[in-house]
Amino acid sequence: MNYKRIPMDHDKKIALVAHDNKKRDLLEWAKFNRDLLAHHQIYATGTTGKILEKELNLKVTKLKSGPLGGDQQIGAKIVENKIDFLIFFWDPLEPQPHDPDVKALLRMAVVWNIPIANNRASADFMISSPSMVNPYERLVPDY
């Protein structure tokens, strides 16, 4: 299979998403990493974006709420190479009415080979990676 290289600049485009029961966890993580996040372009779904923008005093590009199409908007931005990685604190123990949208979003992240963090530990490792401060090329199958 042939691959194409998609560059990520020094300043990354980061999507932050959280289910209702995980919004507090994501906010605490984002506050702890505020200075690092300030160097990047932040996207978020609905309520999560409003909370982050207010609490962090950072510009956040806010999309629709997840159940109202925000997850699909993030997925479309991944396909368009407008999102470099996804931090999605999801709640695996709570049923979600928009579960098909969540699965579609995660599928797009995997298909387009972007890094995904689904909990605080993986988000900590990702944001502290040397790849965060250096240009990086991800390989994507050339369909």
Can you describe what's shown?
The chain is an alpha/beta fold and 143 residues long. Helix content is 39%, strand content 22%. It has six helices and seven strands, in the order E-E-H-H-E-H-E-H-E-H-E-H-E. It has helices spanning 23-32, 34-37, 46-56, 70-79, 99-111, 120-127; strands at residues 3-8, 13-18, 41-44, 60-62, 85-89, 116-117, 136-141. Strands 4-3-2-5-6 form a five-stranded parallel sheet, with helices on both faces. Strand 5, helix 5 and strand 6 (116-117) form a beta-alpha-beta unit. Helix 1 packs parallel to helix 3 (46-56) and helix 4 packs parallel to helix 5 (99-111). It starts with a strand and ends with a strand. The mean pLDDT is 92.
Radius of gyration, Cα only, in angstroms? 14 Å
Average residue pLDDT: 92
Low-confidence runs? none
CA distance, first residue to last residue: 9 Å
Class by SSE composition: alpha/beta
Question: Into which percent range does the helicity of residues fall?
Answer: 25-40%
Strand order, largest beta sheet: 4-3-2-5-6
**Major β-sheet, in short?**
5 strands, parallel
The run of helices and strands is EEHHEHEHEHEHE
